[in-house]
Specification:
Four copies of one chain form a homotetramer. The first copy, chain A, has 395 residues and is mainly alpha-helical. Chain A folds into three domains: 90 residues, Orthogonal Bundle (Fumarase C, Chain B, domain 1), CATH 1.10.275.10; 248 residues, Fumarase C, Chain A, domain 2, CATH 1.20.200; 29 residues, no CATH class. The first copy, chain A, is 62% helix and 5% strand. The first copy, chain A, has 16 helices and six strands. In chain A, strand 3, helix 9 and strand 4 form a beta-alpha-beta unit. The interface between A and B is large, with 92 and 92 residues.
Amino acid sequence: MVKLWQKKSKTDPDPDVETFTAGDDPDLDLRLAAYDCAASAGHARMLGKIGVLQPDEVRRLVDELDAIRRSAEEGRFEIPREMEDCHTAIENRLTEKLGELGKKIHTGRSRNDQVLAALRLFCIAEAGRIRSAAEALTAGLKGLSGRSGGVAIPGYTHTRKAMPSSIGLWAGGYALALEEDARLLEFIRGRMDQSPLGTGAGYGVPLDVDRAYAAKEAGFSAVQENPIAVQLSRGKFESTLVHCLALFMLDANRLATDLIFFSMPDTGFVRLPAAFCTGSSIMPQKKNPDVLELVRAKYHAVLACQIQLQTTTAGLISGYHRDLQLTKKPLMEALDAAADSLAILAKLVSGLEVDEAACAKALTEEVFATERVYALVKQGVPFREAYRRVGKQYE
Amino acid sequence: MVKLWQKKSKTDPDPDVETFTAGDDPDLDLRLAAYDCAASAGHARMLGKIGVLQPDEVRRLVDELDAIRRSAEEGRFEIPREMEDCHTAIENRLTEKLGELGKKIHTGRSRNDQVLAALRLFCIAEAGRIRSAAEALTAGLKGLSGRSGGVAIPGYTHTRKAMPSSIGLWAGGYALALEEDARLLEFIRGRMDQSPLGTGAGYGVPLDVDRAYAAKEAGFSAVQENPIAVQLSRGKFESTLVHCLALFMLDANRLATDLIFFSMPDTGFVRLPAAFCTGSSIMPQKKNPDVLELVRAKYHAVLACQIQLQTTTAGLISGYHRDLQLTKKPLMEALDAAADSLAILAKLVSGLEVDEAACAKALTEEVFATERVYALVKQGVPFREAYRRVGKQYE
Amino acid sequence: MVKLWQKKSKTDPDPDVETFTAGDDPDLDLRLAAYDCAASAGHARMLGKIGVLQPDEVRRLVDELDAIRRSAEEGRFEIPREMEDCHTAIENRLTEKLGELGKKIHTGRSRNDQVLAALRLFCIAEAGRIRSAAEALTAGLKGLSGRSGGVAIPGYTHTRKAMPSSIGLWAGGYALALEEDARLLEFIRGRMDQSPLGTGAGYGVPLDVDRAYAAKEAGFSAVQENPIAVQLSRGKFESTLVHCLALFMLDANRLATDLIFFSMPDTGFVRLPAAFCTGSSIMPQKKNPDVLELVRAKYHAVLACQIQLQTTTAGLISGYHRDLQLTKKPLMEALDAAADSLAILAKLVSGLEVDEAACAKALTEEVFATERVYALVKQGVPFREAYRRVGKQYE
Amino acid sequence: MVKLWQKKSKTDPDPDVETFTAGDDPDLDLRLAAYDCAASAGHARMLGKIGVLQPDEVRRLVDELDAIRRSAEEGRFEIPREMEDCHTAIENRLTEKLGELGKKIHTGRSRNDQVLAALRLFCIAEAGRIRSAAEALTAGLKGLSGRSGGVAIPGYTHTRKAMPSSIGLWAGGYALALEEDARLLEFIRGRMDQSPLGTGAGYGVPLDVDRAYAAKEAGFSAVQENPIAVQLSRGKFESTLVHCLALFMLDANRLATDLIFFSMPDTGFVRLPAAFCTGSSIMPQKKNPDVLELVRAKYHAVLACQIQLQTTTAGLISGYHRDLQLTKKPLMEALDAAADSLAILAKLVSGLEVDEAACAKALTEEVFATERVYALVKQGVPFREAYRRVGKQYE
């Protein structure tokens, strides 16, 4: 078994080096295998079109790639550690099943455009997963508004009561914020929907490939023309996707922070579903908002992923470097953290109960001070004077 | 003189507290003053429309705001340190010039929506400045392509020669990357073009304000409806703008890294304009690429600004907190760093000379190894076998 | 006037380049000038010792450097923008006053070791400023303990009441944390107290300099021997200093967060001094903890500075690069943010009043649930059983 | 089976919640189990000393904990996913084996001090692993110096040749930098060597525990007195440990950057061992320095971990929050990344060969320009004049 980048060599491989360079790829790549199959099938069809492969060869390759893709989707595909990544494992499987034909698939491409094609297709699919989770949370917030939107609560500034707000206004604020994030997600999804196939290792391939055809067959909407721009996008496109996840997660972080505050026994505007709380190993009275705390903390995990993506490629000359291998993990971790957090929040919000009595009790008179100012303004008192008069009682 | 948020109070202010809370605002806000005038004029016209101000009052306020705006644009407006920020300074100036009328401008708004309106108008204008600088750099790259695009150079991967590239391919890669960034900039500019006017301190104002009219008169294209979403956007919208700047700067960082590498005496593909290099205080032979190094480093300054914007608001309950004051500085610093870097790079690239002899010399035979592989492929040798044959000479 | 690194050259300088490369140095370097004078005086005395300068020359140089140092300390020293930094400005002043003798001071050094010597002396002095501010805060916390240490308050976990705590326990926790930070500060101060003088641009100087003597005369306790290690330390030593500031600021951030929470009208354990609060421009009842919010936010400003210091030098080959110029600003900003925050917190804590009635009221019965468990344990009930029994009432 | 924090409750657990809250703990905690056993044994002995447990009970608990520890060290201990973490799994195992006695071990402690004790013992042990890896690298560098230290190479500034350097000077610079890092590691190791046992959930335990005895028996050198300081340290102590790892990794990053540059075919000062290089899937001539590139990139992974640790706890009131669970993963990932990188670099450096001919060829005349200046200086020419004269030839 030979890795794609491996030359016939008299050098014995060093097992520590093999372990170090494989890193987490044998695990992480299980998630990319299906997308590599899709991209490879597109590439094979293109090789057929330009006459490098015979129609029958294309069919056999595509059939076998489909079989691998299904096994990957069903969790049956395995990447032996010594093969390092899904790309080697897939090509070896093709060769094992199809003999010499399997070795022809790599004509007209490099591992670089191959990896990148799989990663982009993966990101496009994952963007859909994030959008669904975000939509579920938005729906949960709107459901809460439907149930209890009219209940008045104090609005806070500086962590002190400010003016009257309501469950509906509050939930609607988060729903709108999430919808704005979703539009950026759609933008970056579109950005990633450009095919790198045919750019080789960053300088094209010395073969008349049909990039537009490969792109279409692999499932891309467009071709990213310049191969150097393709390489410059690595880590960078991902960083914007993860930045977008960080925006969703910032909303989630603040929503969680609000809910931790609103469900304190002393505040009590909302009751968290019991299944989302935990007790203490020492204090028998505790009902702790652990799920919300973890959501809050996961924001920082996503942000760290974004930062790693934004620092890894700085200071490198253009063209591929192995440093890029380390962009996969923060990308996948951020996607999981965001998807899981949005989904669990959606479920929690759906089970949220508003305690109307507690809300009413919290609407102490100072919450209405500004309304009293404006009542005077409507009677003709200048604003600054009205403010001064009402303010007197709080000195 | 009284600050906008200051209550008549028997408490003597503490000068250390005043210094601490003012921070850098008296300086930073000089850049916001003109935008505050524009937003305030829109707000005043709206107050006229709903009958809170008389037409004559509106006219006098707007005229005075215009005068202040002009003085700000011409660098003549000053913010006395004890006034802390431009908003207090402007309202005090209105009151000084127009008496009681000046005090009426704050009817129907809070400092929160006022500050945010000015900041958004500022960001929209600054996005234009960034776009222009980026376009100048793109034009510089295309100009270089025009002059020397056909000159072949080695393309590198892993900081080793890989395959043939060209000045045109290389410059075109950066141009495309910058154009992709510019589309995200346009997206986020559109995102910021939503009026916060009328959302008060985050819970509306108890007055029938006409938000759509105020938005239009202040120069916004749309209204951001939910006041809590408006507050949730603070720091967050800015962080995406600065993320976009970080993308531009990542391109600039890598372009600078390439040029430092390409202009090494040993490589010598390009000659940097002499005015962009410096010598050494001890080594008489040196011609150092200081401008490029500073551009490279400024990427990290912009990234740090982005991170500060993304961490400052996490963990805060919804609603305004004074923490937000500290988002202004990283925003402005990132804008300046990006605009200056793109502009100076544009100038440098325009003066770049390609050394054709050095480029030709660098095209050593191994750069063409892949072409030799594909020559065999075209003769019918399977790719993996062709690769093995050509590879032999490099073992 | 010629900059230290400037070669006699026919190239006209480009004013945009000059502005770009000078950056903020003319302002920032005002703080370094006195330290450059101290280091330069040490260097001059060493040149005397090894016979490069005559005793009389040394005396005149040292006297003039002392005069410049005093003017810098008194805020009278100026750095003309065209001179870019304090090092050029100081050498030009020496030459202006002492003629040819002024030009001799640069013998046996490079700008690199010169700048670094000044920066290290600056950091050593600034570490003292930070230590004092931290000690003032620790003293304030201990003073609070002395006044009200015995007052019981609820201790919280998960933002819910957990078990009984006290003002003394709470204040003592922060005091201990700050003292632990101070020990790291002392460690890093010691790390920086190594002289770079004599390492030139990173490869020594071709002259028999006496590094130990220069170090001693410049005020360093030790010599950092390897010149490449000296260059590798740039940005890195600073990053650890700023990391230490970030630790202080994390304590400050959490102390501020506690005080914002403990001074909410609903909680009310402590009353903030009125001079440290602000009102609202629209809500007449507000007393906002702005100072605490700004301290909280400044943590993130310091953290951003740390990150910038940690990212700027990564990926650079060993040896000096101009990128390092941009490490000065985050270093200085972090020092100021930390010193100012610790000082203002010290003042605020000294004025803090504990509301004993509010504290007592907050000690609701569930705070004592764990004590009831252990009362059963002491009667012989196994812990898990006792926990179960007491827990029943909270189901 | 009941988790430690779980109350008897009629609420059915939600499997999504269970999955979300367990997170990566069942995997990560396999590394903590042995340390939990050590700390628990110390705690058990202390309970014996204060009479809560009988001597026979202590012995049986300690024996069983030892058995679990051994199984953990041998990789045989398992944490069923439904038990969530090692602490629950260990206590359940004790109860399974020892019946009611197993339930007594949790007397006088909380999960908080239990987890923290295990984490600190883990960190202390891991610091040893890092120190060893760093020492191996330092030894490798010194070995290289021994072999080829006298070979002259050009020293670079600004990525351009500057002055003569040597393999020995260069390797010695990194060795010194690593030794300086190691001293900080020792400092932070000492900082972590303070026992949290007996601080419960952050407010002590209502039982007369003997903290000093528990500390000694668990293997700590000291007791961290204030329980609130103990909680404030969480994430924070770890962040300084990881900051120290980031310093090691910055050296590794720059060492790798140097070696990538020095082993370019055009430079060729050193030859990388063949086992540490890889080829290309498309270009048969390539020998790529992948290991060095991955080391370079891992710096950014470690930095991201540090940042996550530094942001997660900001803005939280004092006392435990579940957010802290997410500090384990970045801590462990950073430790592994640093240990692995230092170890592989040590191995690579040991196999490095210096190409003396290539080094000699690179010492072109301009490298000696400064020496020519100083030759003139020694003849009595003032430095600035000598510089000017030598500089002429480079204009």
